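S.,

As promised, the zinc ion run. Input:
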Amino acid sequence: MEHHKHSGGCMCSGVRYEVTGPLREVIACHCRECQQASSNHVTATAAKPGKLKVTDDRGLAWYSHGGALNRGFCKLCGSTLFFDHGKEHPTGIAVGSFDTAPALHVAVHIYTDEAGAWYDLPQGDADARDTETWQKTSWHDLKWLDV
Ligand SMILES: [Zn+2]
Ligand SMILES: [Zn+2]
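Predicted complex:
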């Protein structure tokens, strides 16, 4: 199977990356930390382990607020970019950072019990708005798509 290559980066191009291989369906995370990072929920796809290649890391910085998650961002322009859970796990990538939006859609909303009171969860995703969904849906059970 032929895998497509995707490229992306931050607002100022201080961080650039390429991804080979399939991309995971999108998770929309409504947790408090994502709100603080973006003022909204964060939407992330993912690359298989080892398939995200950072081609320019001049601006790349990482922050961990405790736990296993490291948030990758650009220290020059502030763009949210990566969500690293460790080498053996898929690396989350902010969907909005791709040069061309991949043909992906949100598959699951997580931490909806922390969703901001200033926005509505999208209509048409009734089951995904269940606050239990994130517990029933493993990150790793989501589909990987060649897009
Ligand atoms: Zn930047
Ligand atoms: Zn979150």
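The chain has one domain: 5-142. The first helix runs from residue 32 to 38.

- D.
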